[in-house]
Specification:
With about 130 residues, this protein is mainly α. The chain is about 45% helix and about 0% strand. The protein is built from 6 helices and no strands. Helix 2 packs across helix 6.
């Protein structure tokens, strides 16, 4: 009985540790966003730069940020940004949208991608945190 109880505790502890490791970290996502800041802005007062501002990205159709000159590839991609679309895109932007102007090699690390999404998706279209 003691062995069964101990085994159950080990399984529960392992599950909790795994869940914590996979949790999204907004602070780490903010740090990761430093890679994006040369071209993109987010938050209060964000404006288009070389790339469009990213406020309210979750649910926005690709190629529709006001006053940004998108490539035809982005405008015609048919993408509505959400978690899955973003995570696929950020791994290899040029493969996801051939012809995009975005000159970024991508992020391959799953945890970093999850953290970056957690940071980006917290902003509504007005640059306020949800």
């Amino acid at each position: 009985m003691k062995r069964l109880t101990l085994s159950a505790l080990v399984v529960i502890a392992s599950s909790a540790a795994t869940s914590a490791a996979l949790a999204q970290d907004v602070a780490a996502g903010k740090t990761s966003f430093n890679k994006c800041m040369a071209c993109h802005a987010i938050g209060a007062g964000a404006r288009n730069k070389v790339g469009p501002e990213l406020n309210g990205l979750d649910g926005r159709k690709s190629g529709t940020a006001p006053d940004y000159s998108y490539s035809d590839a982005n405008k015609n991609s048919g993408i509505t940004w959400n978690e899955t679309q973003f995570k696929d895109y950020i791994k290899d932007p040029k493969a996801t949208i051939p012809g995009t102007k975005m000159a970024f090699a991508g992020i391959k690390n799953e945890k970093e991608i999850n953290d970056l999404w957690a940071f980006i998706e917290q902003y509504d279209k007005d640059g306020k945190t949800k």
